[in-house]
Amino acid sequence: MFHQKKVIIFDMDGTLIDSVGIWNAVDKELIARLGGETLPEENIQQRRDELLRTFSHTQDAYLAYCNFLAQTYNATLSKEEIRAMRYAIAQHYLKNVIDFKPNAHTLLHYLKEQGYQLVIASTTSQNNLNIYIHENNAMRQKVDFEKTFSLILGREVVRKIKPHPEVHYVIMQELKAEPHECLVVEDSLVGVEAAHNAGIEVITIFDTYAKNDEAELRKRSLGYFEDFETLLLHVKEELGKKLKI
């Protein structure tokens, strides 16, 4: 999987960090503030994922999502005001709750030591990424983002978000890499589709909130791993064998 690769591209939410459930909680509170009905978080996530896929071709899919919420709940607030409210609700979680998945930082350090170029390609905003990088103490103690990653790309970098492959085209152009020299690490179908659409091989890390898609993720991925500890063991075994040849 890692043989002859030089660029490893990581998704952020649900892949490197435990965050999908937190965004479900944020949206649940947001909907309540807009006067909407109480929905199970699983339903909130499913609807959000479907809408973001639908809006992925737009200039700002999350603004379109907030516009949907405004229309659905007859809100007096504008879509911009709803988006601002969403991020205000999220601030505590972003700074103090979200953390790397177990052993994710250990894998990052190991891959960096082996000479790989590491990249974050996320559909989250650059503002949120900056909070992780500069204000989330738990994450900052584990990873020096500026030294570890060659590129850290939020959704503002591209006009079309995943499953469109634009972000991967940007990465390959910036790092002068070909698709066969890259490997994507994802947790969701939309991310896997983006990798395939760019002609890049992809492996998947299990995430609780993508459990319903597990069969399809296994089918469409070069490898499927239950956690980062398992992936790290696989990487060390694979690279160890390569070194012995």
Automatic annotation (TrEMBL):
This is HAD family phosphatase. It comes from the Bacteria. One of its GO terms (molecular function) is phosphatase activity. SUPFAM superfamilies: HAD-like. It comes from Sulfurospirillum diekertiae. Gene3D superfamilies: HAD superfamily/HAD-like, Putative phosphatase, domain 2. InterPro entries: HAD-like_sf (IPR036412), HAD-SF_hydro_IA (IPR006439), HAD_2 (IPR041492), HAD_sf (IPR023214), PGP-like_dom2 (IPR023198). It holds the Pfam family HAD_2.
